C-alpha cells in the first residue's frame, strides 16, 4: 500500500480547508451581505414578493409615478418591510453620449418600525445635479419616521458653481415618497368632491352647456337629497412649459350656490407640465381664487406678484384658461 507523503497530506488538508472557506465566503456573499438596492433598504438580503402594480407607467414624454409595491422578505422567510418602486421621466433631454431624457428610479422602503429608507436604482440627470440628488436622498431619507417626511425641506441639488437652481428633481422625489407613504398607510383622500360637497353628492353633466376650446364641461352637483349644491367647470389646454416642450393641464373649478369658488382641483394625471415644486407653486396660485366670484378673478390674474416665480410659462397657460373661462361665463 502506497503511503501519502506528509507534505502531500498537509497540502491536501490545506486545499480542503481553503475550499471550505471559499464555499463559506461565497455563501455569505450571496446570502448574508446586502448588495442590491432592496437589500440596502433593510441592511440584509431580501427577496421582493407579492408584487402589486399601483400605477401603470405611461407611454409619454414625462411622468412621475409610484409604479408598484412588494413585500420584503428576508432569507428566513420573515417579512421585514414593504418596498415601493417610484419612477420619474423628465421631459427635457440630458446632454451626453446617448442624449437621453432625464430619468430616476428609486426604491422606498418602509420597515416594521414605520421608518422610511430610500435607495437609488438608476439616476440619469444633469452632471451638475447628480451629487446633490444623491446627497438629498442619503442625508434625509435614511431611517426617518414616516410622520417626519412632510417636514423634510426641498433641497437645491445644483452644484453651486453651475449658476442655476435644481429643486424640481428633489421636490418630485419628496412628493412621490409622500405618495408611497399615503398609499402604505391609507392616508389618501380618494374623493376631493366629497370633501367639498359632502358624502352622497352626485355630479351630472349640464346638457345645456356648450364646450369651447378651453372650457370643456360644466357639471351640476346635487346632494343625497337631490338638492343642487354647486357646480364644477373643467378647463383644459396645452402650452409650453420648458425649452420648447409643450403639454396640457386640466383644472376643475368648484363653486357653491353663492357662485363662490370653494375649491380648485388639479389632478396630477391631468397636469403634464413639470412636477415637484413647480406643480405645488401652480396649485398654490390657483388656491388664491378660493372664496372669489368670477368677477373677482381678473384682480388675481393681473397681479404680477412673485407667487409663481419660476413657473412663468405654466402660469401663462393657466391664465389663458382662466381668462377664457371668465370671458365665457361672466
Rounded to the nearest angstrom, the distance between the terminal CA atoms is 112 Å
Low-confidence stretches: none
Mean pLDDT over the residues: 87
Largest beta sheet, briefly?
Answer: 6 strands, antiparallel
Tell me the number of structural domains.
2
- Oligomer category: single chain
Fraction of helical residues: 25-40%
Note the run of SSEs as H and E. Answer: HHEEEEEHEHHEEEEEHHH
What percentage of the residues does DSSP assign to strands (E)?
25-35%
Please tally the helical runs, counting DSSP H or I stretches of 4 or more residues: 8
Strand order in the largest sheet: 1-2-3-4-5-6
Q: What does this 3D model show about the protein?
A:
The termini are far apart. A 6-stranded antiparallel sheet has the order 1-2-3-4-5-6. The protein has 8 helices and 11 strands. Strand 4 (101-111) and strand 5 (115-124) form a beta hairpin. With 330 residues, it is an alpha+beta fold. The protein has 2 domains: 39-184, no CATH class; 196-329, no CATH class.
Amino acid at each position: 500500500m502506497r503511503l501519502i507523503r506528509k507534505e502531500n497530506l498537509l497540502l491536501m488538508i490545506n486545499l480542503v480547508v481553503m475550499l471550505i472557506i471559499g464555499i463559506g465566503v461565497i455563501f455569505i456573499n450571496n446570502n448574508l451581505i446586502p448588495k442590491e438596492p432592496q437589500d440596502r433598504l433593510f441592511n440584509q438580503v431580501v427577496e421582493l414578493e407579492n408584487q402589486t402594480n399601483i400605477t401603470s407607467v405611461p407611454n409619454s414624454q414625462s411622468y412621475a409615478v409610484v409604479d408598484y409595491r412588494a413585500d420584503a422578505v428576508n432569507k428566513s422567510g420573515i417579512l421585514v418591510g414593504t418596498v415601493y418602486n417610484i419612477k420619474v421621466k423628465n421631459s427635457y433631454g440630458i446632454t451626453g453620449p446617448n442624449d437621453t431624457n432625464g430619468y430616476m428610479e428609486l426604491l422606498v422602503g418602509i420597515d416594521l418600525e414605520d421608518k422610511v429608507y430610500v435607495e437609488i436604482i438608476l439616476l440619469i440627470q444633469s452632471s451638475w445635479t447628480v451629487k446633490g440628488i444623491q446627497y438629498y436622498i442619503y442625508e434625509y431619507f435614511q431611517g426617518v419616521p414616516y410622520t417626519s417626511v412632510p417636514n423634510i425641506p426641498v433641497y437645491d441639488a445644483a452644484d453651486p458653481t453651475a449658476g442655476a437652481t435644481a429643486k424640481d428633481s428633489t421636490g418630485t422625489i419628496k412628493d412621490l415618497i409622500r405618495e408611497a407613504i399615503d398609499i402604505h398607510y391609507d392616508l389618501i383622500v380618494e374623493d376631493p368632491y366629497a370633501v367639498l360637497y359632502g358624502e352622497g353628492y352626485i355630479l351630472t353633466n349640464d346638457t345645456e352647456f356648450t364646450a369651447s376650446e378651453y372650457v370643456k364641461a360644466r357639471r351640476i352637483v346635487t346632494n343625497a337629497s337631490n338638492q343642487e349644491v354647486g357646480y364644477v367647470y373643467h378647463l383644459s389646454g396645452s402650452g409650453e412649459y420648458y425649452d420648447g416642450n409643450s403639454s396640457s393641464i386640466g383644472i376643475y373649478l368648484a363653486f357653491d350656490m353663492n357662485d363662490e369658488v370653494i375649491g380648485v382641483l388639479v389632478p396630477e394625471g391631468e397636469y403634464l407640465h413639470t412636477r415637484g415644486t413647480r406643480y405645488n407653486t401652480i396649485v398654490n396660485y390657483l388656491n388664491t381664487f378660493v372664496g372669489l366670484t368670477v368677477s373677482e378673478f381678473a384682480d388675481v390674474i393681473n397681479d404680477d406678484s412673485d407667487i409663481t416665480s419660476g413657473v412663468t410659462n405654466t402660469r401663462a397657460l393657466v391664465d389663458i384658461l382662466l381668462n377664457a373661462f371668465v370671458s365665457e361665463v361672466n
